[in-house]
């Protein structure tokens, strides 16, 4: 029986982009719906956190981008995106990439949705430090991370770096020349071009 798979996504979510790219690479048949998360009360029934991405498989919820990607990997006939030889390194790299996305999302919300006089400069600086420190950490591991085959940690890092550039800065590229060159190559791929961020909905 073929599954009815719906990927609820947002127009700019880096977590959602990671899932969409994974679905494309693994040739998972699915329908993607870009929703305004702030007005999507219907989602609460399926995911009480009301977040994108959320996946419905025949009405069963799979929440969190990591679970969604693992699910896609488990049902695909293609080679796994999780390399067995460096499995835990890959999982840790994915977590670091998720952390970059999380801090970049929080920073953006703090700076764009909160009145200027209520913004917390210390929180913003904390988000920025974590983002930049994580990117340098990845640069220092570049040799073990970069390979010809596109793996789940690479997809996650590409989404995290591209989102950092989209919402914050590309200044990290000065100290991270390997990652910068690598990202330039990756962003030329069709899967990256066809999943570029759109116009975001107003935070409310
Ligand atoms: N840990 C989650 C994070 C997802 C997440 O933070 N999604 C954001 C969009 S980038 C969201 O839905 N925000 C709306 C909200 O939390 O109210 C994942 O990996 O899927």
How would you state the average pLDDT, rounded? 97
Overall structural class, as computed from helix and strand content, comes to: alpha+beta
N-to-C SSE string, H for helix and E for strand: EHEEEHHHHHHH
For this structure, the CATH topology of the largest domain is Glutathione S-transferase Yfyf (Class Pi), Chain A, domain 2
Strand ordering within the main sheet: 2-1-3-4
- What characteristic shape results from the CA principal axes? globular
- CATH C-level name of the largest domain: Mainly Alpha
**How many domains in all?**
2
CATH A-level architecture of the largest domain: Up-down Bundle
Q: Which range best describes the helical content: under 10%, 10-25%, 25-40%, 40-55%, 55-70% or over 70%?
A: 40-55%
- Distance from N terminus to C terminus (CA atoms, Å) equals 40 Å
- Say which molecules are bound, naming each kind only once: glutathione
Low-confidence residue ranges: none
Largest sheet: 4 strands, mixed
Count every beta strand, where a strand is a DSSP E run of 2 or more residues.
4
């Amino acid at each position: 029986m073929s599954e009815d798979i719906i990927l609820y996504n947002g127009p700019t979510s880096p977590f959602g982009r990671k899932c969409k790219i994974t679905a494309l690479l693994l040739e998972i048949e699915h329908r993607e719906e870009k929703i305004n998360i702030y007005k999507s009360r219907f989602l609460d029934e399926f995911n009480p956190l009301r977040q994108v991405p959320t996946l419905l498989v025949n009405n069963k919820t799979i929440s969190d981008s990591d679970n969604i990607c693992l699910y896609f990997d488990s049902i695909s006939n293609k080679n796994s995106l999780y390399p067995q030889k460096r499995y835990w390194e890959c999982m840790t790299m994915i977590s670091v990439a998720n952390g970059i996305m999380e801090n970049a999302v929080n920073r953006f919300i703090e700076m764009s949705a909160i009145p200027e006089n209520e913004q917390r400069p210390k929180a913003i600086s904390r988000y920025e430090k974590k983002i930049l420190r994580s990117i340098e950490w990845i640069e220092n591991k570049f040799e073990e991370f970069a390979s010809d085959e596109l793996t789940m940690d690479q997809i996650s890092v590409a989404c995290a770096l591209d989102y950092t550039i989209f919402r914050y800065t590309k200044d990290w590229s000065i100290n991270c020349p390997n990652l910068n060159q690598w990202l330039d190559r990756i962003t030329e791929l069709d899967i990256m071009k066809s999943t570029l961020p759109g116009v975001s909905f107003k935070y409310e």
